[in-house]
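Look over this record before class:
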Amino acid sequence: MNIKIVKVIFVFAVTLTCAGLSAQEEVMPTKKQTPSKADREARAKVREQRLKAKAKADAELRAKAVDINHASKTELMKLPGIPAEFAAAIIAKRPYQSKAELVTKNVIPQGTYLGIRSLVVVK
């Protein structure tokens, strides 16, 4: 008796699922409108402005980045998530070939590194 009920429920669920999938296919648009030339030009201009703004922001960020091989303890402590202990450890394990060595040399935890990796450089 219970097996028959389970089979009926299963068949009913499969039927509803198939009906839902076929209904979704009918809702999909069949014709895609192409943007006008003015729209394409406007989008290209916006895209170009965004790329320029991103390049400018990246340049400013690199200019403000802290060099972990030469920064003082005070400068290192200004970074988010870097207390005095981490700053002292960074200074003690210098020099670094890459900023990823902060994690590989077990100087700071991975989570802290992810928070400061865009703010530090190695020169």
